[in-house]
Every structure is written in C-alpha cells, then in structure tokens.
Amino acid sequence: MPEGDTVWQTARRLHTALAGRVLTRSDLRVPKYATADLTGRTVLDVTPRGKHLLTRIEGGLTLHTHLRMDGSWKVYAPGERWSGGPGHQIRVILGTAEHTAVGYRLPVLELLRSTDEHRAVGHLGPDLLGPDWNPDKALENLLRDPARPLGEALLDQRNLAGIGNIYKCELCFLLGATPWLPIGDLPAERAAQLPALAKKLLEANRDRPARSTTGRRDQNLYVYGRAPRPCLRCRTSIRTANQGDGSRERPTYWCPTCQSGPAPGAKPSPSRRPPSRTTPPPTPPSRTTN
C-alpha cells in the first residue's frame, strides 16, 4: 500500500494537470456511476488526505479514490500512449484540453457531495503531511491502547494518517524498538519523539523520486527489504516476519540487535520495557539531503 508521501506526490501531479481546467472527458467505469457525467465542470483542486485522494469538482462534488496495494493515477499529454495497464483495468478517466488523468486498478472510487467528505476520511487521525497535523493528538491516539504492538499502532490510520509498511519498519528501527513491542512499553522520551520523527521522514521524502531514510548515497533504507543483509549500524543480519494489522499479514523487517523488545510470537510482560540505548538512534535525513 502506498505511503503518504507517494499519495502526496500523486495529488500534486493531478492538481497540476487538472486544477482550474474544464473537464472535456469524464468516464467513471464502475456500475454505480456509469451514467455520471462531469464534462463541462471545472476541477477545483486535488487534495491528499492520508492515503486518500479527494478531487473536488465544480458543483459541490468530490471524487474520492484510494490506491491501496495496486492502484495508480497516470497523467498523459495529448497523443501520448497510455501505459499504465490494459484497458480493462481503467476505472476512471478525467480529461481536459491539456491533459488526461487515468486511474488504474482503483479499488475505491466514489462520487460524493463535497459536504459529505467526512464519510470517506472523517475517521482518519492527524495527517502527517496535511494542514490538520497535530502531534499531541497523534501521540494521544497511539497510546490509547498501550498493549497494542508498535508496528500495528503505526499502521492504523485512525491514529495518524500517512504511514505505510516501509515507514513502519524504518520508524521502529530509528526508535530502537521491535515492531512487536507494546507501544505502552516504549520509553516516554522515545514515544514523545515519535510524531515529530514520523513527520520529518515523510516531509523529507515528499519531493524525492527515491525514498530515503538514511541520508546515505549507498543505501536508502535501514531495514525494509534488506533481509538477510547486514544491518548498517551493527552488521547483524536483518530479519523478516509477518505482522498482522487486523486485516492482513505484512512483511516486517527489523534488526534484532539494534531494536529492543519482543520478536514475533513472543508474549512479553505488560511491564516489559526495552533496555536503554548506549548510543542515540540514527538521525533521519532532512529534506535537503541529496
């Protein structure tokens, strides 16, 4: 599932191509909206909300889409070959005189009244890349269920919106805790750092074509996708296992030396806390890192 920075980039591309322009083509290829016609209306803006996309259209309408695992939006110039997938995977086409935006494999597509957007995104926690960001509220949400594993709490978009599986793994590494550590066992000083650290990572990457959490030229990520290669800090082999988030299993990566806490299948005591570090966790890159 795309991370919040990927959705933010998609929204920016769509906004640049469509906002302020009149739709000359409208094709919603789902049965419920097969007769809906948006041609002649002006696109007002395209706004990301966590991992959701809201395309607001003249007349008080909003096209709500979500990419989930396989969805994508592509923007094409007139005469450009469409290369996002076969025609039967197209779910929506929005065309103007200058560009055509095509949504492929979109599992969520609904046309709402703009006044009803809360039905689609009202359940989300503070958006890491949005104007509603509130670190105190995000931390309060995360700690509401102290027995919940850290990794699962980070993925729950009701706590804070925008973290996917990659950032989950990288954040846990930077915090020095395994994703299976009950979030209530995270030392208070590290828990307090979590919202700002998550925001810093996503902001550092929202304008980059290649995501990086390390600031290094030779390796972009600390743990995600790196098993069984050696940890960049301690050279221990990175491990991987599945972590359920209530709906599916996700490949999770961690360093058993740099990250304290239970491993998969362990049942720690509610009072268990990871030992204090002797060295500070790595510092994520700033937005100006090459």
Automatic annotation (TrEMBL):
Start and end residues of each stretch annotated as Disordered: 241-290
Entry's Gene Ontology molecular function annotations: class I DNA-(apurinic or apyrimidinic site) endonuclease activity; damaged DNA binding; oxidized pyrimidine nucleobase lesion DNA N-glycosylase activity; zinc ion binding
Signal peptide: none
Record Pfam families: Fapy_DNA_glyco
Protein EC: 4.2.99.18
Superkingdom field: Bacteria
Family recorded in the similarity comment: Belongs to the FPG family.
PROSITE patterns in the cross-refs: FPG_CAT, ZF_FPG_2
Gene3D superfamilies: 1.10.8.50, MutM-like, N-terminal (3.20.190.10)
Keyword Methyltransferase: no
Biased composition (Pro residues): 265-290
Organism: Streptomyces flaveus
FPG-type domain segment(s): 222-260
Listed GO biological process terms: base-excision repair
Name of protein: DNA-(apurinic or apyrimidinic site) lyase
Keyword vocabulary terms for this entry: DNA damage, DNA repair, DNA-binding, Endonuclease, Glycosidase, Hydrolase, Lyase, Metal-binding, Multifunctional enzyme, Nuclease, Zinc, Zinc-finger
Residues covered by the Formamidopyrimidine-DNA glycosylase catalytic domain: 2-111
EC class name: lyase
Keyword Zinc among UniProt keywords: yes
